[in-house]
Amino acid sequence: MITSYTSPSEITLQHRITEHVFNRFGIDSSNTNQIIENTTLTEINPDFLVDVLNVFCNYEDVDINLFSKYPVPVIVDYLTRSHKYYMEKILPEIGQSIAILLSNYPKSHPLLEILYKFYFKYKVDLQEHFNEEEETLFLYANSLYKAIFFKKEISFFIEFLQKNSIDDFVEEHSDTVENLSDIMNVLLQYEPPKTNKSSFRILLEKLKNFEYDLNIHAFIEDKVLITKLYDLEQNIKLEVNN
User: Fold this and answer.
1) How many domains does one find in the chain?
2) Same domain, 136 and 231
3) Which structural domain range is residue 33 located in?
4) Distance CA 53, CA 65 (A)
5) Calpha distance 113→52 (Å, rounded)
6) If you ran DSSP here, which 8-state letter would residue 151 be given?
7) Same structural domain, 227 and 155
8) pLDDT tens per residue across span 97-132
9) Distance from the CA of 126 to the CA of which of 5, 58, 82, 88 falls in 20 to 30 A?
10) Which domain of life is it from (predicted)?
11) Angle, CA 91 vertex, CA 178 and CA 139 arms, to 5°
12) Considering 26, 42, 61, which residue would you say is the last residue of a domain?
């Protein structure tokens, strides 16, 4: 069990995938200081970071109420950091792995067109998806939080909630994980290149880890953030009615 008194180096030694969590928070995963020490002079909530790390170590047994105690801005900050990390770190690494893999296949091999089309389309679609979330859902989430806890923009939300709801976002929300599963299934239909089987294995591992990360991201967004926004909307409506 990870605690705030565990060091990043201890954690990543046992659970390599947690390195990605430390990276998005700007913490050196080889650091031997305790998490509480690494976050002392930052805006990072050490308890939230510990909970995220524990989820990454055992996502299957995650408690849906685990993050309910954290305020909306903390959750939005994590999701925003993840968006940036995916686009600036994870996807470029996947693109590089695709290029290395395909260099070991003949130019006529069908995987060339399949993988390149997948990568460039997925990258564009994911960026559009993230932009939409940040410009609509996350902006709305932080504004709603301020309206409740700092009594700001209450008049705006009274009018806004008469015409809109978090339901509007949920209905239009698209899945970012499904395409990764599809491309992994396509890859598995082909034999690894005879000249370099490791490049095939590395790409599959990167895609699998990204899928795992995105599933946790979706859980925190859909089950935690959206649920909290529903509750905040109800609080405003009760305040207005009273």
Assistant:
1) 2
2) yes
3) 8-61
4) 16
5) 37
6) -
7) yes
8) 999 999 999 888 999 999 999 999 999 999 999 999
9) 58
10) Bacteria
11) 75
12) 61
In this structure, the answer to whether residues 104 and 196 fall within a common structural domain is yes
Domain for residue 67, yes or no? no
The reported pTM is 0.90
Please indicate, yes or no, whether residues 158 and 76 belong to a single structural domain of this protein. yes
Does residue 2 fall inside a structural domain? no
pLDDT of residue 91: 96
Question: How far apart (Å, rounded) are the C-alpha atoms in residues 167 and 71?
Answer: 20
Tokens of 199: 């490049």
- Asked whether 193 and 105 are in contact (CB, 8 A), the reply is yes
d(CA 216, CA 75): 12
Residue 30 token pair: 């080889």
Question: What amino acid is encoded at 184 in this protein?
Answer: M
> Each residue's pLDDT tens digit in the chain (242 positions)?
899 999 999 999 999 999 999 999 999 999 999 999 999 989 999 999 999 999 999 888 788 788 989 999 999 999 999 999 999 999 999 999 999 999 999 888 999 999 999 999 999 999 999 999 998 889 888 888 887 777 666 666 666 665 556 776 766 656 677 788 889 999 999 988 888 899 999 999 999 999 999 999 999 999 999 999 888 888 777 766 66
Is the domain of 48 the same as that of 161? no
Model pLDDT, residue 152: 61
Residue with tokens 């990258």: 123
Same domain, 93 and 212: yes
What's the CA angle centered on 107, arms 105 and 110, to 5 degrees?
Answer: 80
- The residue from 61, 86, 101 where one domain ends is 61
